[in-house]
Every structure is written in structure tokens, then in C-alpha cells.
């Protein structure tokens, strides 16, 4: 390859710690040994050589995203980067949650900058269109984005045209999805045994025991609601050059049937499909002027069957889905639980979304060292959703309701206008780059809501028309209990950055950004966010010139400050009318009173972070090591607290204000080793680990908040100083009472009896009450890790990736919530207490609410290790492909999530709750599936 070819080839940063990725060069992937490839990293409003980076930035390339059966690109890098925890959604089309170096805010999200457009959801984007991702982890890297990046940011560069000849790529895979690790439930005989046993345990007077002859069915409700489904993806792209025009064009279609089985065909269950197209154009008008356009259009449909997992978990197996005597759906008389089969067949909900993202930009170079760039991005989302609930005729007449149709038509509009001026100059060994910029962002949302009764569905979506119903309600936006209000937000920003290095040896980066947001009142509308980082490339010192071990040895440190405006906010007081008004003598007058206390001075959340890192590359760059210590403090986190001194206010126990301060600190380490045994054999190994300690360091007025899922008013989450976010709060179980005498001899405990939980008397006063509740564990892992191996042996390639977490706890709310005669899992049946000495860990079968309280029995180990992906590929011989005028044809098979080792008594220890406060509670969570695929990559 000539040096000129190398210069104009696209080289994106690919060797980063914890990753095993190789620089991609088109049209050839070979570079002579003498030539040095400089790694380039995408940073805010530009790029920089990897060697000169002073912040913490993780890199991902197209190779790590391709050939993975994930609708959302970010799912494919789970376990690949240190400091980044990704929690996937099992629901088709669901977006994963990304936590970068812990939990800094309870409301904000990690953002994605796609070709200059900032968004918090990239489900519209095909992984095949992405060339690289830069994951900004430390505040010094993020500060240039100010208010938009307080929870982390990922810069995404999509592919562009290159080379003079057109290149076509076709990628396709077909796979099957199956739910794994399905909990085993009791069968009909075991259920009847436990039911009758429960009546005895609860001392029911004149109990009516179940008889198997009266309940002939034996239904596995999980088998009833799950199915093996198909996932299929096809993408084709064309790229090249037409004179001064570089182009990249692509289109693709993804279909994911989902694993919820709607057997009547009325509802496709939980299916998702996406059509996407992309056009990236770059035109060089003159030697100094370049313009471009990045255009993305997607059309998505999501079928949203009601999630029936909890219903299936709770349904007695003694009922069949269909009543054999009537041919209609079976009604449960033992428990008020919906028939899962009926819900899947009859309920219908669907969301259709069209999204158009467009970025127009121009760049002008003048006076040799100056570059002016202007960029305008728009993101338009139109979403139409309906929910249809028919009359359930199989339930008693008194419980039947008329059919109801709800529609929601929403419009989201986001615009960003960026202007930057940069100056780059070298003075001997002094290299300086200065950037100044101005940015404006506008976001708006509006929704039209309508509902009607007695709409009749005939099997065709066109029959679902609000106008055909009765009792029609229509609003221009959701209000009241619908909890959605239209909004329009603006952010105005001025920013600047200085990059300096002396001979590539001493590095300095400093930035400042001033953000103003319409979300806050004028007294706290603008904030300034500075950052500074420095690096020392020790390997370039003269005293290192004689050594041949280190190719790179760099020490770096950074400090930065960020702000988050995306918080809960209310500007006006809510009031309620007093019935009858107020009376003065005999005259009545309308009157109002304050119903809620609102803090009108809610302001910015701010995060200040520090990190110290060491980077090494050894043995001719074969071994790369990165070690980083990070520490960040977030102050004025907006969330609710208890205001016990406020009387008469409805929100005394959830007063929202700038209430909390958090600290996240930990250590990251990543190792990557690549070696070439021969021209035909290459091996790579990578590994990374991150430790994390999250702590609430202060709460306004020394208060707290009891919140989260609850059973009979007993919430299981408590936010309090000294604890991690989302920590569980309840009673510590000391064992199981083996006899009534033992229960009587214990501290005074309501409902204490043989077979019940023995709660610890924390305060030692001889009475078990709310003062004996204690913290039971945290949902935040103490550590996350990933490692893997990849090999290329002649025309074959093999890769395996592992991923896991440790030190976190899951609250099994599925198991705890019992209101009547719900079913039990087989683990409980096999280990329950059913007589003295039978168990000191599992209680008896009961629905006694004095026993079923938030406690440590339901807190389980969330640690796991998983094979995230295995893939085997084969490149057809060039003698064959050349004869077919094909550049490359690769066939592969893969398995995603085929094996997971864990102790938790549920589908999966990977619990995705979008609410960070309840992040570890398993309450009807859609499970993760194993996906087995075959696919092909064709280039011609």
C-alpha cells in the first residue's frame, strides 16, 4: 500500500483497552510492517490522536457491532468496555440502559451524539451503518457537551463513502430466539398439597380442602405463553466516490417476532420490526470548502402484548387455559388472576413510529490554520399508539366491562444548531489547537389523547376508530392521571477548548462551557462547566530511549464539572377545592387550599469528577494495559424526600427538591493482547474489570425516602445517607420458628408462629416493629467484568465473549407478592418448612401478611457469568470468490446468551428497570432470550 493510499484511507481508532479491534482500511486491510498507523479517537466537536488523549474514552468499531442479533447497537458492546455497565431489555425493540461509572442522577440518561445530533435513544439506527463509537467516561471528556452529558455520552460516527470504485455490502442473518432458565413451577398435585397445607398453617376455620378429582387440569403456564420465535435481518449498502462526491447509501429491514405467544393471531404478541435507510454525502466544493449531509429515516412497529409473566408465575396449574365445558377461556375461582392465554389473545396494543434524523453541515478552511464549521441537525419523531381492551366475556357479569380503545398520537421535535471555529498550529515542538463554539438546542413534545367505549374490533386495525365508540374523551395532551404534559425546552451554550502538547510528550486539555436552559427560573438559568486534564507520555522521555519494552507509557489525570437540567420540576402550586367552600356568617364562598408543597427553586444537579490513569503498550504493541481510578461527586440531585413536619399536604412523604448528594468511585483495569503466530494464524485475548462503590453522601435536612414496589403499603426501597442508591429496606431473617414454643420465647413479633420468619430484634428492645428494619443489600454491582478470545486460522475465524457482574442483590418481588392463592415455584415446594426440622431457611406456605413483609429472604444474589456471544465464521476461498466477481463472502453461525450461571430464582439476574431507584427489583421483568443465528457477509 502506498503512503498516499494510507493517508486517504479511513482509519478509525480500534485498539483500545478491553477491546480487540483492528484498524479498518478500505479497500485493503493490509499495512506493511514499517508503516505506523496513528489511532484516531472521536471527541466532542472533533477528533484527536489516541496517543494524545488525556481523558478516559472507550472505543468501539464496526467489527464489534456487526453480526450480532441486536436491534439496538449499544447492546452488542455489553462487557466490552471497562466502566460501562449495559443492561439489556429482553423485549423486542427495547432499549438498554447504559450506566457509565455508576449512578450520578436518578432522572437523566446517557446520550448519544449521532453525526452531531444528540438523542437518548438509538433504536432507530442499524448497527451496520455505524463505523465507530467513542464512549466518553470522565468529566473532562464530557464537559465540552456540558448540560447534555452529565450521565455520560457516546459519540457515534456513521459510515461514509471511500475509494474510487463503488463497493456493495450485503449482510443477512436468520435466527431463532428462545427463553432460557425458565423457573420451574409446581404441578397440579403439588399446588393442591401446598394449598391444603396453607389452610392448616393459617388455622382456617372449617377449611375446604382441594381435591384433585375436581381439578383435572395440569397446566404449565410458562409453556402456554412462550414460544420459540424468529429474528431476521437484512442490510445492503453501497459506498464510493463520484469525483468530488463521496457517498454511502444503505437500507435494511429487521424483524423480531418476540417470545410471547398470542395463539389466536389477533395480536402478534411482542413483535418488533424496523425499516431503516441512510444517506451520507460529502461534497468537496473547493480545496477549502466541504459540505455534507447525513440523513437517516426509520419506520418501526412494536406489538405490545400485555406482559403476562407475573400472571403466568402466579396462575394455579389446576386450571386449563380453555374451559372444556364451555369452549371459552377459563375463569379462575381460586385466585383473582387474569387468564394469561386470554390476555395474550384478546388484548391488543401497537406503536408505530416514523423517525427522520437529518444533519446538514459545511466546513470552510481559511488562512491556512483556521477551520469554521456549521452544522444543523433535526430529529423528528411521529408516534401513533393504540391500546384496545375488549370485553372479557368469560369473567362474571359483574366484572365485565365494555370494550375500550385508547389512542395516543405524539410528536417530538429536536433541533441543534452548532457553530465552531478552530485554529491549529505548530511552533517547533509546541502543538496548539483551539476550539470555540456556540450551540442552540430546542426540544418539544406534544400529544393528542383520545379514548372511547364500545368500539368493536373485527380483526382489522382499521376497525379501531375512536369515532365509532361512545363516551368519547379527547384532549390535545395527556393530563391528570395520564401524567404527560407538552413541553418545549431550549438550551443555549458557549464553549471553548484548548489542546496543547509539547513534542507529543507533555499534554494539556482545558475546556469550558456555559449552558443556559429554559427549564430553570431566571435566578439559576445559566451555569459554567470547566474541565482540565493533563498527560505525560513517559515513553518519549530521553531516559526511555534505550529500552525496548514499552511502546507507550502514559500517565494522565483529569478534573471536570458537569450539570444536569433533566430533572422533575413543577412551577405552580396544586390546589384542591374544599367541598362547600368557606363560610362567613351564613354566606358561603368558593375556597381552595394548598394540596401539595412545591419547591419553586429547584435548580441544577452538578457532577464533579476526577480520575487518574496509566496507559501502557508493550512488546511491539502486542500487549495493551489501561488502569484508571475515578471518583465523582454529584450534588443537588432532584428527587423526593419525607417532610414529616408538613401537615395537610398530600406529598409530605414525597417532597421533590434538590435533596441528595451521591459519590461514585472505583477502579478500572483493561488488558488486550494480540499476536500473530504466522501469516495465517492470529490470536487475540482481552479482559476488563471495573469496581464501584456508590453512596448517598447527604440528604436534605437529614431526611430519607421510603419508596419503590410495595406490598400492603410496605415499600422495599429506602434512600438514606450512607447507603447505595436503590438499597432494600426490611427485616433481617434469623431463621424459621420450628415450634410455637420457640416463637413465644422470641421477642414480641406480630403473627409469630411455627413455620414463620424469625425477624432480628435490631434495637434489642424485645419488640419486633418498624424500628427493627435494616438495610438488606444494594442492586448496584460491586464489580463488572468481561473477557474473551478471538482467533483467525486460515479462512476460519472464532470468537467467544464472556460477561458478568458480582456483589449486587436482586429483590425477588415476584415471589413475595401474594394476595390470595397464587402458585408457588418448585424451589419453594422442595425447601419449604412443613414441620419441625424440615427447614430453617424457607417458611411455610401461607398468605399471612404479618409474615410476608419486606425481608432478607426475598433478597437474592445477583451475581452471574454469561457467555455473551460465540461465533464461528468461514471465508470462502478467494479462488472461488474471484471467479464469481465477489470480493468477500463469509458465512457464520453464532449463539448469543447460550449459557448463564447464576443462583437467582428467576428467569435472569439481568434486571432492567428504567427507574434507577427500583433498578434491582424483579417485578414482571421481560426475560433475556438466547439467540442462535446463521448469517452471511457479502462484499462485491
Q: If you had to describe this structure to a student in words, what would you say it looks like?
A:
By secondary structure, the chain is mainly β. It contains eleven helices and 45 strands. The strands form ten sheets. It has a 22-stranded antiparallel beta barrel. It has a five-stranded mixed beta sheet with strand order 3-8-9-6-7. Strands 41-40-44 form a three-stranded mixed beta sheet. Strand 1 (40-43) and strand 2 (46-49) form a beta hairpin. The longest helix is centred in the N-terminal third of the chain and has 14 residues, at 188-201. The two termini are 20 Å apart. The relative contact order is 0.12.
How much helical structure, as a percent, in the residues?
under 10%
Overall geometry: globular
The overall pLDDT average reads 89
Distance between the termini: 20 Å
The number of helices is 11
How many distinct beta strands?
Answer: 45
Radius of gyration from CA coordinates: 30 Å
Unreliable stretches (pLDDT < 50, length at least 5) are: 1-37, 478-483
Largest sheet: 22 strands, antiparallel, barrel
How would you classify the helix and strand content by structural class? mainly beta
Strand content is over 45%
Structural features:
single chain, 940 residues, 5-stranded mixed β-sheet, globular
Task: Itemize the secondary structure elements and their pairings.
Layout: H1 3-8, E1 40-43, E2 46-49, E3 57-61, H2 62-65, E4 84-87, E5 97-100, E6 111-114, E7 117-119, E8 130-136, H3 139-142, E9 153-158, E10 167-179, H4 188-201, H5 221-225, E11 229-242, E12 245-256, E13 272-284, E14 289-303, H6 309-314, H7 340-346, E15 348-366, E16 370-389, E17 404-427, E18 430-453, E19 470-475, E20 487-502, E21 506-517, E22 526-537, E23 550-564, E24 575-577, E25 582-584, E26 587-589, E27 592-594, E28 605-618, E29 623-641, E30 655-678, E31 681-699, E32 705-711, E33 714-719, E34 728-730, E35 733-736, H8 740-745, E36 757-759, E37 774-777, E38 783-793, E39 796-806, E40 809-812, H9 813-816, H10 826-831, E41 859-861, E42 864-875, H11 878-883, E43 888-902, E44 921-922, E45 929-939
Parallel strand pairs: 6-9, 40-44
Antiparallel strand pairs: 1-2, 3-8, 4-5, 6-7, 8-9, 10-11, 10-45, 11-12, 12-13, 13-14, 14-15, 15-16, 16-17, 17-18, 18-19, 18-20, 20-21, 21-22, 22-23, 23-28, 24-27, 25-26, 28-29, 29-30, 30-31, 31-38, 32-33, 34-37, 35-36, 38-39, 39-42, 40-41, 42-43, 43-45
Amino acid at each position: 500500500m502506498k503512503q498516499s493510499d494510507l493517508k486517504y484511507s479511513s482509519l478509525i481508532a480500534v485498539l483500545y483497552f478491553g477491546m480487540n479491534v483492528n484498524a479498518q482500511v478500505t479497500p485493503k486491510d493490509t499495512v506493511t510492517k514499517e508503516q505506523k498507523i496513528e489511532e484516531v479517537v472521536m471527541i466532542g466537536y472533533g477528533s484527536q490522536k489516541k496517543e494524545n488523549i488525556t481523558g478516559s474514552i472507550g472505543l468501539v468499531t464496526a467489527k464489534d457491532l456487526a453480526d450480532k442479533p441486536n436491534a439496538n447497537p449499544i447492546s452488542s458492546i455489553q462487557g466490552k468496555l471497562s466502566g460501562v455497565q449495559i443492561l439489556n431489555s429482553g423485549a423486542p425493540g427495547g432499549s438498554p440502559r447504559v450506566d457509565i461509572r455508576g449512578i450520578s442522577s436518578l432522572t437523566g440518561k446517557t446520550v448519544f451524539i449521532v453525526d452531531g445530533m444528540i438523542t437518548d435513544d438509538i433504536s432507530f439506527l442499524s448497527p451496520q451503518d455505524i463505523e465507530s463509537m467513542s464512549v466518553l467516561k470522565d468529566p473532562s471528556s464530557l464537559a465540552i457537551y456540558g448540560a447534555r452529558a452529565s450521565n455520560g455520552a457516546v459519540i457515534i460516527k456513521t459510515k461514509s463513502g471511500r475509494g474510487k470504485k463503488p463497493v456493495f455490502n450485503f449482510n443477512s442473518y436468520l435466527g431463532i430466539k428462545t427463553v432460557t432458565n425458565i423457573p420451574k413451577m409446581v404441578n397440579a398435585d403439588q399446588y393442591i398439597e401446598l394449598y391444603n397445607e396453607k389452610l392448616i398453617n393459617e388455622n382456617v376455620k372449617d377449611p375446604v380442602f382441594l381435591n384433585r378429582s375436581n381439578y383435572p387440569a395440569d397446566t404449565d403456564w410458562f409453556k402456554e405463553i412462550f414460544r420459540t420465535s424468529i429474528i431476521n435481518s437484512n442490510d445492503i449498502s453501497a459506498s464510493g466516490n463520484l469525483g468530488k462526491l463521496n457517498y454511502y447509501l444503505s437500507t435494511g429491514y429487521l424483524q423480531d417476532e418476540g417470545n410471547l405467544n398470542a395463539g389466536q393471531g389477533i395480536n402478534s404478541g411482542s413483535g418488533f420490526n424496523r425499516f431503516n435507510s441512510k444517506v451520507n454525502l460529502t461534497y468537496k466544493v473547493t480545496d477549502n470548502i466541504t459540505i455534507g449531509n447525513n440523513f437517516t429515516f426509520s419506520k418501526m412497529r412494536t406489538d405490545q402484548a400485555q406482559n403476562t409473566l407475573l400472571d403466568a408465575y402466579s396462575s394455579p396449574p389446576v386450571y386449563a387455559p380453555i374451559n372444556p365445558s364451555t369452549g371459552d377461556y377459563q375463569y379462575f375461582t381460586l385466585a383473582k388472576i387474569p387468564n394469561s392465554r386470554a390476555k395474550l389473545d384478546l388484548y391488543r396494543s401497537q406503536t408505530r413510529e416514523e423517525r427522520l434524523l437529518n444533519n446538514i453541515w459545511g466546513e470552510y478552511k481559511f488562512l491556512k490554520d483556521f477551520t469554521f464549521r456549521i452544522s444543523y441537525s433535526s430529529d423528528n419523531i411521529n408516534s401513533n399508539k393504540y391500546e384496545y381492551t375488549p370485553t372479557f366475556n368469560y369473567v362474571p357479569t359483574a366484572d365485565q366491562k365494555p370494550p375500550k380503545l385508547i389512542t395516543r398520537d405524539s410528536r417530538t421535535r429536536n433541533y441543534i444548531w452548532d457553530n465552531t471555529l478552530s485554529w491549529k498550529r505548530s511552533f517547533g515542538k509546541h502543538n496548539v489547537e483551539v476550539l470555540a463554539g456556540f450551540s442552540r438546542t430546542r426540544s418539544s413534545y406534544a400529544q393528542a389523547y383520545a379514548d372511547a367505549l364500545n368500539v368493536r374490533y373485527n380483526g382489522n386495525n382499521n376497525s379501531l376508530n375512536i369515532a365509532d365508540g361512545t363516551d368519547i374523551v379527547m384532549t390535545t395532551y395527556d393530563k391528570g392521571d395520564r401524567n404527560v404534559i407538552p413541553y418545549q425546552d431550549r438550551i443555549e451554550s458557549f464553549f471553548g477548548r484548548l489542546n496543547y502538547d509539547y513534542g507529543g510528550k507533555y499534554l494539556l486539555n482545558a475546556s469550558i462551557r456555559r449552558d443556559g436552559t429554559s427549564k430553570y427560573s431566571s435566578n439559576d438559568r445559566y451555569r459554567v462547566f470547566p474541565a482540565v486534564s493533563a498527560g505525560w507520555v513517559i515513553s518519549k522521555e530521553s531516559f526511555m530511549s534505550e529500552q525496548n519494552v514499552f511502546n507507550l507509557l502514559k500517565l494522565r489525570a483529569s478534573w471536570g464539572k458537569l450539570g444536569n437540567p433533566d430533572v422533575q420540576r413543577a412551577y405552580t402550586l396544586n390546589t384542591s377545592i374544599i367541598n362547600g367552600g368557606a363560610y362567613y356568617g351564613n354566606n358561603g364562598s368558593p375556597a381552595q387550599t394548598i394540596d401539595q408543597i412545591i419547591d419553586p427553586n429547584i435548580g441544577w444537579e452538578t457532577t464533579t469528577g476526577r480520575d487518574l490513569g496509566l496507559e501502557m503498550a508493550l512488546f511491539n504493541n502486542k500487549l495493551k494495559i489501561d488502569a484508571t481510578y475515578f471518583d465523582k461527586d454529584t450534588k443537588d440531585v432532584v428527587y423526593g424526600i419525607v417532610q414529616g413536619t408538613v401537615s395537610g399536604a398530600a406529598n409530605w412523604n414525597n417532597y421533590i427538591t434538590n435533596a441528595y448528594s451521591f459519590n461514585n468511585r472505583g477502579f478500572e483495569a483493561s488488558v488486550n493482547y494480540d499476536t500473530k503466530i504466522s501469516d495465517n494464524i492470529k490470536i487475540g485475548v482481552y479482559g476488563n474489570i471495573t469496581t464501584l462503590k456508590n453512596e448517598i453522601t447527604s440528604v436534605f435536612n437529614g431526611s430519607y425516602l421510603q419508596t419503590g414496589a410495595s406490598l400492603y403499603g410496605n415499600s422495599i426501597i429506602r434512600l438514606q445517607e450512607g447507603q447505595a442508591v436503590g438499597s432494600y429496606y426490611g427485616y433481617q431473617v434469623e431463621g424459621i420458628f420450628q415450634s410455637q414454643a420457640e416463637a413465644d420465647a422470641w421477642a414480641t413479633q406480630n403473627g409469630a408462629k411455627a413455620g414463620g420468619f424469625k425477624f432480628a430484634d435490631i434495637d434489642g428492645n424485645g419488640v419486633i416493629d418498624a424500628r427493627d428494619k435494616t438495610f438488606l443489600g444494594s442492586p448496584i454491582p460491586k464489580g463488572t467484568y468481561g473477557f474473551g478470545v478471538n482467533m483467525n486460522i486460515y479462512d476460519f475465524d472464532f470468537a467467544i465473549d464472556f460477561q458478568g457482574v458480582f456483589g449486587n442483590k436482586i429483590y425477588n418481588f415476584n415471589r413475595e407478592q401474594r394476595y390470595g392463592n397464587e402458585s408457588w415455584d418448585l424451589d419453594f415446594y422442595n425447601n419449604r418448612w412443613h414441620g419441625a426440622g424440615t427447614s430453617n431457611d424457607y417458611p411455610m406456605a401461607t398468605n399471612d401478611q404479618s409474615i410476608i413483609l419486606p425481608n432478607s429472604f426475598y433478597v437474592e444474589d445477583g451475581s452471574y457469568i454469561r457467555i455473551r456471544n460465540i461465533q464461528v465464521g468461514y471465508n470462502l476461498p478467494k479462488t472461488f470468490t474471484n471467479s464469481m466477481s465477489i470480493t468477500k463472502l463469509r458465512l457464520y453461525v453464532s449463539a448469543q446468551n447460550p449459557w448463564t450461571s447464576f443462583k437467582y430464582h428467576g428467569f435472569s439476574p439481568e434486571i432492567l428497570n428504567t427507574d434507577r431507584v427500583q433498578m434491582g427489583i424483579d417485578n414482571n421483568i421481560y426475560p433475556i432470550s438466547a439467540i442462535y443465528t446463521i448469517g452471511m457477509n457479502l462484499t462485491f
